[in-house]
Write a structure and sequence with these properties.
Elements lengths: L1 H9 L4 H10 L3 H25 L19 H4 L2 H21 L7 H8 L5
Length: 118
């Protein structure tokens, strides 16, 4: 130990001593860079694995959404819109004609509810 001290004191630029100093020198920034490089390498490997072997997913059956018709005033001319409105009115009128009509009169309803004339 004492011999090394005197050797370095009298020969500070010896090749052996310079090489030994390089090996012993420890750098914090080098450790940080090595750690970051390892993280990036790991990320790159994961991405490559995902690209080469994509995960298989079963298609999800979504419920059918109720489709509404587009606004007729925006896409159609007045003649077409008028014809559409007339057809809708005819359908409504036909449904009203086919609907069952109440057969009871007011007197029958009064008797049913128990309302008496006073």
């Amino acid at each position: 130990m004492l011999v090394n001290f005197f050797h370095r004191l009298f020969n500070p630029h010896c090749e052996h001593c310079i090489e030994e100093a390089r090996e012993l020198k420890h750098c914090d920034s080098c450790d940080i860079l090595k750690m970051q490089l390892a993280l990036k390498t790991d990320e790159c490997n994961k991405l490559m694995d995902r690209l080469l072997n994509p995960p298989t997913q079963e298609p999800v059956n979504e419920p059918l959404v109720n489709v509404t018709r587009p606004n007729p005033t925006r896409y159609t001319t007045w003649a077409v819109r008028k014809q559409m409105l007339e057809q809708e009115d005819k359908k409504k009128a036909e449904l009203l004609r086919q609907a069952p009509k109440p057969s009871s009169s007011v007197e029958e309803l009064e008797k049913e509810l128990g309302v008496q004339e006073g």
